[in-house]
Amino acid sequence: MSTDTAHPDTTGRTPASPPAGNRPPRSLGDGAFAALLMLPALAMLAAIVVYPLVASLVTAFFEQSLVEPGRTFVGLHNITDLLGGDFWRLLRQTLVFTVGATIAPFLVGLALALALNTRIRGRATLRGLLLIPWLVPSVVVSFLWMWIFNANYGLANGALEALGLIDAPQAWLAGPGTAMTAVIVAKTWASFPWIMVMLLAGLQTVPLELHEAAETDGAGAVQRFFAVTLPHLRGIIGIVLLLELIWNFQHFDLIYVMTGGGPAGATETFATAVYETAFQGFDLGRAGALGLLWMVLLLGMVAIYVRRSEREGQL
Amino acid sequence: MSSNLSRRDMFRLVGLGAGAVGFGGLAACAPSADGPDKDTAKSATNFSFASWSLADNASKAKIEELMSGYGSKAGITVNGVPLAYNNYLNQLTLQVRGGQFSGAAQMDIAWLAGLAALGKLRDLGDVAKDAGYTEAALTSGQVDGKQVGLPWTTAAIGLIANRDLMQKAGITTAPATIADFEAALRALKGTGAIPYAASTKVAQLKDILIWMQTFGSPLLDGDKVTVGDDPSVEAVTWYKKLYDEKLIAPDVERVDARTLFAQGKTAMYDDAIVGRDFVVKGSPDKSIADKLDPIARPVKNAGDKPRAVQWGHAVVVVEGEGANTATDFAKWLTSDEQTVLGYFKDLSLPPTTTAALASEQVKTDQFTSQFSERITATATPNPFWKYPQYAQMETAISEQVQAVLVGKTKPADAMREAGRAVQALIK
């Protein structure tokens, strides 16, 4: 290292800058150094997340087609048009799917977690087998259930007819009254294993002594469940339900493959509507407006999740 | 190994890494050491070929054989881009629009205007001149007089019946009028089969348009959309009646209809000539090919001309890397006599050149000649095809028809709404 700067200037002149190659290294604070290290990741995030997100949200304020060049600024027209039209129907249907596809697998997952937390024979094998639906890719799940619910050659009609529960084949996916239920059933099958695993992990942290003490005090199985088990699971149940709500609120693939949002829009949610509007209707402006409104709602849910997670000390 | 790197050392390493990446990137952009740009020199280069036939098991092997056949002759690789038919147009549109696709692409003739609107399709007029295509075939590949596609196959979409099931129901002649047709469907219902596997899912409900024309709606008068007029409402009301009486079935699109037909579970369905191959290959009945009977669409009043919608595939060339070789490939694929006759032999798709159509192989194929005579002979293009927004128009009408079928709206209201939506798309 050069030692030139250690000598005081005795000439009375302003000391000349040392040659560039001899400059001392400037110290970099920890904060700046950390920021520098994060820069590549931040640049990547900006390029592949922030820019596309902002660009697509900006289209909400334009009339813009996917196949024609150019766009026209229309202000809030796309948003007000949606709020005066399809938005509330989409919100209602999205909420029906979200709540249905959260509660149903939760109940199935909880029941199975409780069963697998007992000393039943073949417990380990059952745990493995019950995870299979979760491992199947979503598109495969969709095709599987499309086949089960097909009106003309579906397994569901065949089984129900054989059992004498229906007289004629039902158009499960083609009926506005049954299509959403069919989609929720399929989603329940795909989602319950994850919930089951999470709850099972929670159940295994419940101290056995508490159960024994409650039993000694004369509490039955149901009382012990509500007085001992449930309070212990409250935290994990909250997180599981909230995450499922967020995921289902933005769920796309299973609905799109099974029904395409039909029949006659009966299973259309924000996710499928944005895709249909942009890539079938080629209307990027309207799709952007839908995306903007959808994101605002989703951010509210995410905010609740973050606050809750912080409170639970999980972040 | 010591891990005591100073910050300066780390920056040096990062700098070295970045330099290496940058150098690598620049090296990749440098001209090939093999010689000048091959495309400019008009020698063969690798290119991509997008095709929905590549995504379909029935035709995949043949298309791959054609690609590798051309590739080995030219000493290049043709990279297949398989995309499913129902999502083909929007996927290809996105890729072309984003500059991610160049090369050759299979196209439904109904979609040409939409893709041409992106302004990236090569004008193939000069290429098409001496290739021997029929005049009708050439027209099917044009948009506003510009030859944007080379015709690969042309025919029509019509009704295909199972002769055995029809005879079982006591139907010995093809129903000529709508009234005859309804009577035939009622007779077929008694056999336990789905009488007519008409499209009832949005993806293929465009089939309703030809019924609207059969009932007398022109669909378009100049630039004025006539969907919503009395004949179109009458057609949808009739379709709904068939649905309610279970003469047509819910939950059906082309693929379902082919499957049901191949399994002998329906007596009739709408398809292009390409359907024969799917049905024959997918049927457990080894003699199904002999039972296929293409029939003219019934007319509203005796003496009317049967309606059929034109159908066909073209090959377009998207400008960019490999476009010159892709153009040569498109011409070879669609006009080389040996190639198109081989395609016809394996997939039953009629060629588009005068010479190939005159060949014994095509002329003596009974199904093809019956299909041409009864269906293709009166086929016309859909009047909405000329608009780049055709796909949106089709969806707008299909969604309203489906709403009628499931009882969410009345035919008159639905068709008025569909007409309004389609009109709004015409600028």
UniProtKB/TrEMBL annotation, chain A:
**Which processes are annotated in GO (biological process)?**
transmembrane transport
Alphabetized Pfam families for the sequence: BPD_transp_1
Has the keyword Cell membrane been applied to this entry?
Answer: yes
Q: SUPFAM superfamilies, from UniProt? A: MetI-like
Q: Name the domain of life.
A: Bacteria
Give the primary localization class. membrane
TM spans (from-to): 32-54, 95-116, 128-148, 179-203, 224-247, 287-306
Where's the ABC transmembrane type-1 domain? 91-303
User: Can you quote a single GO CC term?
Assistant: plasma membrane
- PROSITE patterns, sorted: ABC_TM1
This protein's membrane topology, according to the annotation, is: Multi-pass membrane protein
Q: Write out the entry's keywords from A to Z.
A: Cell membrane, Membrane, Transmembrane, Transmembrane helix, Transport
Which InterPro entries does the record match to this protein? Answer: MetI-like, MetI-like_sf, UgpAE/MalFG_permease
Residues annotated as region Disordered? 1-24
Protein localization: Cell membrane
Q: Which family does it belong to?
A: Belongs to the binding-protein-dependent transport system permease family.
From the Swiss-Prot or TrEMBL record, give the protein name.
Answer: ABC transporter permease
Q: Which organism is it from?
A: Micromonospora sicca
Automatic annotation (TrEMBL), chain B:
Is Nucleus tagged as a keyword? Answer: no
Q: Does the keyword Transport apply?
A: yes
Identify the Pfam families for this entry: SBP_bac_8
Q: What is this protein called?
A: ABC transporter substrate-binding protein
Q: Which organism is it from?
A: Micromonospora sicca
Ranked from the top, the taxonomy reads: Bacteria, Bacillati, Actinomycetota, Actinomycetes, Micromonosporales
InterPro entries reported in the protein's UniProt record: Bact_solute-bd_prot1, SBP, TAT_signal
> SUPFAM superfamilies annotated for this entry?
Periplasmic binding protein-like II
**Keywords, sorted A to Z:** Signal, Transport
